[in-house]
Amino acid sequence: MHKITLLIHCADQPNIIASVTSFMASNDGNIVYIDQHVDREQNIFFMRLACEFSSGIFSLDKFKELFKSTLVEKYKLKWRMYSAERKPKMALFVSKYDHCLYDILGRYNSGELFLEIPFILSNHLDLKPIADNFNIPFYHVPVTKATKHEAEQKQLELLEKHAIDFIVLARYMQIVSKTLIDKYPNKIINIHHSFLPAFVGAKPYHSAYKRGVKIIGSTSHYITEELDAGPIIEQDIAHVSHTYSIKDLIAKGRDLEKIVLSNAIKLHANRKVMVYNNKTIIFS
User: Fold this and answer.
1) Of 76, 125, 230, 272, which has the most beta carbons under 10 Å away?
2) Which long-range contacts (CB under 8 A, 24 or more apart) does 179-183 make?
3) Is there a catalytic annotation at residue 228?
4) What's phi and psi for 205, nearest 5 deg?
5) What 3-state class would DSSP assign to 211?
6) Cα separation of 143 and 8, whole Å?
7) How far is residue 256 CA from its own chain's centroid?
8) Is the pTM of the predicted complex or chain greater than 0.85?
9) d(CA 191, CA 257)
10) Could you write out the three-class secondary structure of 36-76?
11) What is the pLDDT of residues 66-104, one digit of tens each?
12) Which listed residue (98, 126, 228, 255) is catalytic?
């Protein structure tokens, strides 16, 4: 049994769904999932489809070529097609905070995440024992103003060597360069608290505590050149009260970061996210 996942978007027009589903049926495909959305303001059609093929001689490359020649030009489709059996490869970038790393590796170790983690990279050595404990290769790549370009080249070498599909910044406290962003567009996932832009700086929870905030939250998004302004994948909030100490706020915030980031990773790894004009379409 072979299974593919297809993501498409194009200008909205009649018969797209009928044409795609007929194409799958005519090639002995059994559709097991289909969902679509039309952005009326931009007149853009989005669709995600999963299809199974029982033929033992199914070739994904040949099927892609057939799909391209039959439908892509006709409807001017922007499309991606994946083998649902292939696990995407994810690199983890970390610094010193360990809560997101522990959570991701725990879920990974239990089989909850459909992906591979070839390595963990950090600008510090603090979290190496965690990587060692989970038997995942750890690379220490220090970053300073003087070594930033050299560090970037080392990162790119490791990413290419391990054929990485996407990167997760699990509290990696460095600004990612344009070179890396261009190499992995909408494939670098970040996590941070949702106090921005109200409470900036090194101690946002202390500032929020002084203001007596009643809601805290976390946001996971794709990295773009504009800092913390990329397409949002996942968000969540929690209500807090005057009884919360700064320590309580930080603990609640870190809980949210872990949950939001793991959900964003699952959505991306399972091919459920589409990006259009800095906005995401998230399929169920």
Assistant:
1) 230
2) 179/152, 180/152, 180/155, 180/156, 181/223, 181/224, 181/225, 183/156, 183/159
3) yes
4) -70, -35
5) helix
6) 39
7) 17
8) yes
9) 7
10) EEEECCCCEEEEEEEEEECCCCCCHHHHHHHHHHHHHHHHC
11) 999 999 999 999 999 999 999 999 999 999 999 999 999
12) 228
pLDDT digits (tens, 9 = 90+) for 5-59: 999 999 999 999 999 999 999 999 999 999 999 999 999 999 999 999 987 788 9
Going by pLDDT thresholds of 50, 70 and 90, the confidence category of residue 272 is very high
Q: What is the pLDDT of residues 206-221, one digit of tens each?
A: 888 999 999 999 999 9
Q: Helices 246-269 and 204-211 sit at what angle, rounded to 10 degrees?
A: 120
CA separation for the pair 36, 34 (Å, rounded): 7
Residue 253's Cβ-count burial label (10 Å; 0-12, 13-18, 19+) is buried
56/208 Cα distance (integer angstroms): 59
Greater model confidence, 203 or 257: 257
**Residue written as token pair 């059609």:** 45
Residues in the chain: 284
- pLDDT at 197 exceeding the cut of 90: no
C-alpha 143/C-alpha 151 separation (Å) is: 6
Q: Give the C-alpha distances (Å, rounded to integers) separating 265 from 5, 115, 162, 236.
A: 17, 9, 19, 15
Listing from the earlier edge strand, what are the strands of the sheet with 29-39?
29-39, 44-53, 2-11, 78-83
Tokens for 136? Answer: 């995942």
The angle at the Cα of 258, spanning 116 to 117, to the nearest 5 degrees, equals: 10
Angle at alpha carbon of residue 258, lines to 144 and 155, rounded to 5° = 30
Region for 240 from its dihedrals, namely left if φ exceeds 0, alpha if ψ lies in -120 to 50, beta otherwise: beta
* In contact, 261 and 168? CB cutoff 8 Å: yes
The fraction of the chain above a pLDDT of 90, given in percent, is 85
Question: The tokens of 56 are what?
Answer: 């033992």
